[in-house]
Amino acid sequence: MMIAKKNKAIALRKKGRSLREISDLLHISKSTAMVWTLEVRLGKIALKRIENLREKGRKKAIITNKKKRLTIKLDIEKKVRKNFIFKTTTSLSRLLCSLLYWCEGEKNECSIAFTNSDPLLISAFLKLFRSGFQAVESKFRVCLHLHQYHNETKQKRYWSKVTQIPIKQFFVYRKSNTGKSIKKDYPGCVSIRYHDYTKALELGFYYKIFAKNYRGLV
User: Fold this and answer.
1) Per-residue pLDDT reduced to its tens digit, 61-95
2) How far is CA 193 from CA 87, 106, 135, 154, 199, in A?
3) Which domain of life is it from (predicted)?
4) Which residue among 91, 103, 160, 218 is least crowded, i.e. fewest CB within 10 A of its CB?
5) Are 179 and 172 in contact (CB under 8 A)?
């Protein structure tokens, strides 16, 4: 019985059957199928079939893993959204704004400069700054960093919509051609400027005092 199964396994392997297929067809373990067929020399047709099966297996694994990651991602997003419930107060807006500035802002006590290319981050910073520090809209300036391939008018309109700052308060800095490839859909980088000495000091003190308190210093 076992000899017959072994011979059948060898025959199947020569035809290009995978170890998994042999295991399923003969109701034996995959390890047994491997031992029985270890010395089988495969022809070109058999090798081609096995390689095709492996390629299909790899593609299937990629799809399966993507689905698993998507499920995990959606579950975590749902969990975070459920816990992400708080009232935005002026004090909280100031603190969150200062922490963003601590990471991405220019450490200058004379004025405020927040630079980034992420429209969501720029929008969040401005929303927090406006609600927390009672910003005067006419004091905003936007320095738009563009490459040679950018359409200036288009990018001004785009960032004006993101920032809710009029185009007349924009000025443009053109980066020299570095020879690097064009980044598709890259909107350029903006530096939000706000010239107010007292606001710059206040913003700086918020994150400095926060940092000192959280490392146990007075």
Assistant:
1) 999 999 999 999 999 988 888 877 777 789 999 99
2) 28, 10, 12, 21, 12
3) Bacteria
4) 218
5) no
